[in-house]
């Protein structure tokens, strides 16, 4: 046995970790606040006098199973959570960012794209429930409506504006389909 380090102190100092429940509660709170790794390390040092590095923070997060946007719940659970938050909004004014923050505060942090996908599913379900047809000239208007709503949601537009746009475009699509058929009918009559 070597006498290089008889005391067993490795030079990193003694770490005084808080008890597991306190540390777990703090890490969960930091996850809800969507703090970066550097911000979490700074808060641990300020609140608990605990100086650790990023790999140790990662190990603690794994140990306590702290939620993260990189560890996603199953897609159906994430979509259901987004849809419930949209349904619970009486004014339908919450956008992608607001819904994401609310879900994070509930302990389910989701990346922005997952919240967006939930919104898109909500809009598409609403469109299907209205009884849209997927054949003929209506297909063009359906794809136009879908692309427009996807663009609005990617921009982070509030739900109210998206739903008003959806309603307006639905009226245009129905009118456009009627117009298309009337033009086709009149051109057919003229050609005789």
Overview of the molecule:
This protein is an all-alpha fold and 192 residues long. It has 2 domains: 45 residues; 117 residues, no CATH class. It is built from 8 helices and no strands. α4 packs across α6, α5 crosses α6 and α7 packs antiparallel against α8. The longest helix is centred in the last third of the chain and has 33 residues. It is elongated and about 85 Å long.
* Integer count of domains: 2
What's the helix-strand series? HHHHHHHH
Runs in which pLDDT lies below 50 for 5 or more consecutive residues are: 133-137, 176-192
Whole-number mean pLDDT:
75
Strand content: under 5%
Let me know the number of strands.
0
Individual helix count: 8
Tell me, what's the shape? Answer: elongated
Please outline the major beta sheet: none
Gyration radius (Cα, Å) is 27 Å
* Quaternary organisation: single chain
Structural class, by secondary structure, is mainly alpha
Please give the alpha-carbon distance between the first and last residues: 107 Å
Q: Provide the helix percentage.
A: 55-70%
